[in-house]
Specification:
This protein has 204 residues and is of the alpha/beta class. The chain has nine helices and seven strands; from the N terminus they run βααααβαββαβαβαβα. α8 links the parallel β6 and β7. It is globular.
Length: 204
């Protein structure tokens, strides 16, 4: 039965295809506390509540974040990697980012399919709350894809990617931390897009 399934590749976005948005914003705004990411804090709800509180404290909102995002380009080689991969198989970007952040980056990547979350924003741009599409969104999406006849192949760099990697037919770490590599040695870890491409093609 499983041999007849179609394959779909599920990729994380930040840290894999584009720079970490919050790190870029932290550098631009001069607020080092905002450099904290899912590599540091596995609980995404907790991380976002922390970020929103810091934004409020400094009087910053969506307008300032979007101004920084407009300057961000995909990681070198990311668009070429995606284009080449999409010629071979279906690709889905699964991210814990927000639609208000992602659109300019998706344009630069050639509009791949993205599933992410959304923000509740006041008229003046203040970020009020984050809304997750579904609990454990990456794992839930992978399981849903499997339930409709797909084999998933997953790759990411952070704690919040591990569940979808573990649940997939094959999984790869990409530009991850030394700690995650050490804790999950069973997953091949790559630093270059060409190597990740070859690994994915090898399991299709």
């Amino acid at each position: 039965m499983s041999e007849n399934r179609m394959n779909i590749v599920c990729l994380d976005m930040e840290g894999v295809l584009v720079p970490e948005i919050w790190i870029a914003f932290a550098e631009e705004s001069g607020i080092p506390e905002l450099k904290r990411t899912t590599r540091d804090e596995p609980n995404y709800d907790k991380l976002m509540e922390y970020r929103i509180a810091i934004l409020k404290e400094h009087g910053l909102g969506l307008n300032e974040i979007q101004a920084v995002i407009a300057k961000i380009d995909p990681l070198p080689g990311a668009k070429e990697f995606l284009d080449k991969l999409r010629e071979k198989t279906q690709v889905l970007i699964l991210s814990d980012t927000f639609e208000q952040f992602a659109q300019p980056l998706m344009r630069k990547l050639g509009w791949p399919t993205l599933m992410c979350n959304t923000l509740e924003v006041a008229e003046d741009g203040e970020v009020l709350k984050h809304h997750m599409r579904v609990e454990k969104s990456k794992l839930s999406t992978v399981k849903a894809l499997q339930s409709i006849g797909y084999n998933t192949i997953a790759s990411g760099d952070s704690f919040n990617d591990l569940a979808m990697i573990q649940a997939s037919k094959a999984g790869f770490l990409f530009r991850t931390t030394e700690q995650i590599k050490k804790d999950y040695p069973q997953y091949p870890a790559f630093e270059e897009f060409d190597d990740l491409y070859e690994a994915i093609i090898g399991v299709l």
